Amino acid sequence: MPDYSIESAAGGRVAGLDEVGRGPLAGPVVAAAVVLPRRVPKALAILLDDSKKLAPIQREIAFAALQAQREAGRVEIGIGAASVTEIVRINILQATLLAMRRAVARLPAPPDLALVDGNQPPLLACAVRCVVGGDAICLSIAAASIVAKVVRDRAMARLAVRYPGYGWQSNVGYATAEHRAALLRLGLTPHHRPTFGAVRQFRLALVAKPVAVDVVLAPPACPAHRSH
After folding, report:
1. Is the separation of the CB atoms in 75 and 13 below 8 Å?
2. Which of 21, 138, 140, 187 has a CA between 20 and 30 Å from the CA of residue 13?
């Protein structure tokens, strides 16, 4: 279980920073930055863990608790995203770092330190420390992972209403069998990432697919009449 020891040792305002959505075939990448109080309420701490380890209902409960603490002025939350267009233009890594910078920029004030899950630090105005596996180590990063996951899942559920058949309400854009089959059946949407896996293969297959051409043969010409 994550704890608050790294944040406490650092002192000052420490933001946990995490992202969700680097691997899917569709949808944005979303990042969240969370600043917890120096003394994290036990009732909140026990709800926080790596979002991948939590069931959807557990994530929703933790998210609601974080939002309640935010409204009470005890927790700060910033959310940022990068669109499919940006992912294609600057690549998924740079889009992820962009989403992280946007999340930190949406905090009420810049933190003194950002603890970033993973080993790729975004360029921030504050000090940055990478923590590999941080969502299972630091409470603030765990909180950020939950916020980013819930926000992105909800966004994909809204897109699923507009683009039915891809199963985004459950696969949230990942390359499940259902999603890959829907690509073949329904084609691409503006929210698919054209440079990613099965989407790229689908586009290449379309380019390589032979086009049927109807050829109509003209009837043989009648032989010229010869007079004898």
Report:
1. no
2. 21
